[in-house]
Amino acid sequence: MWEQVRGFQKAMAPIMQQAKDGVHIICYSQGGLICRGVLESMDNHNVDTFISLSSPLMGQYGDTDYLKYVFPHYLKENLYKVAYTSYGQDISISNYWNDPHHQDLYKETSVFLAVLNNQTAKNDKSVEYKNNFLKLKKLVLIGGPDDGVITPWQSSHFAFYDANETVVEMKGQEVYQRDYFGLKTMDARGDVTTYEIPGVQHLDWHKNQTVFDNYIEKWLT
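^ palmitoyl-CoA hydrolase, sequence as received from the core. Prediction below:
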């Protein structure tokens, strides 16, 4: 994931430099996490509004068709045995695999999501990451119950499973309550907006005209 972040930073930097009034970014699926990586690790970004379109912002934990394609011999219950190794962390989905039953191992081995969330002492730039995130003026979180890929789908709203696999909403998450990367501060400013949109499957978000017209276009001003 960090390799992808660096590639997108390289592509986005000249666009930002030319846009003196700032830019808006729309980031879809795994791209939402890549954009988080860009924002948090880029000291001079000028992103005004970050629109996250069905992205696993708090991670992924589910037996989806995509998971079976990448790891055909593993189910979600035992994927941690591979994902939380140095080899596993070379695979993008492992960088944001968030097993609610093995949180200590996740925080110890994750080189990406735990770093973005400031859940690990390994991030010596945690203050910079938080400050960079808070440079955003607006955060728009879009997801829905019929997505079928992001698991739980509420990860797109910074919610996630607890150890009983019950979804805990954003405001109940430790990263929010302790304001690890600035989400609580941004929410207190009134700058976080969430949309729950039923009837949209994962591969359709970025080509659904209604989603764009009703939930995205208004932020592109």
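The chain has a mean pLDDT of 94.
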